[in-house]
Write a structure and sequence with these properties.
single chain; alpha/beta; Arc Repressor Mutant, subunit A; Rossmann fold; 2 domains; three-stranded antiparallel β-sheet; 8 helices; 43% helix; 19% strand; elongated; transcription; Rex_DNA-bd_C_dom; cytoplasm
Amino acid sequence: MVDQKIPKATAKRLPLYYRHLNSMQQQGKQRISSKELSDAVKVDSATIRKDFSYFGELGRKGYGYDIEHLIYVFRKVLDQDEIAHVALVGVGNLGTALLNYNFIKNNNTKIEIAFDTNDDKIGTTIGGVPIYSVNDLEKELSRTNINVAILTVPMHAAEEVTERLVETGIEGILNFTPARLSVPDDVRVRHIDLSVELQSLIYFLKNEQ
C-alpha cells in the first residue's frame, strides 16, 4: 500500500487524522475535503494533501476524500486491528489518571499491567488494571508480550527503572518524567514534560499578543 518511506512528521500526524475521521464517520459524514480536515485538525491543507500522497490516490478533485476509505487505509497503516498492550510504571496521580482513562476507549492501545512501590496500591486494580510491586517488574513482564512502557515515576527513579525495562525487552518508552533517559539505539523514547509544554504554551500566547 505504501511504496515509499513515510516521513516522521507525517507519521506523527496520522493518529490525529485517524481520530478525526472516525469522529466524522460517527456523525454520518461520508466525505471530506482537505480544507475541511485542515480547519478541524489545524494542519494546513497543503500538508494534508502531501501526507495523503504517500498512500496513493486517496481523493478526487472536486469530490474530496471518501472517509470510510481513509479510515480503512490509516487503520492498516497504524495497525488499529491489533491491540498493543502497554505497561505503566508509577501509579501516582498521573499514573492513576492514565489507568482510569486507559487508551482502549479511543484507539488500539491498552494499559495491561502497572507497577508501583506503594503497599496500599500493590495487589489492587485501578481501571481494571492490576498493580504489582515494582520489585516484581522483571518477573511479571517476562510472562507477557508487552514491549512498550509508560514511565510516570519520580525523576530520581527514572534512570534505574528504564534500565530494568530495557533489560526485560521493552522497545519503546513514553516518558512523562523530566529525566532525559539513556537507552540503546534500538529503544525508542518519547519525552512528554507537561511543565515544559505548559510553559511553552504560555510563552507563545504572550508573544502572539
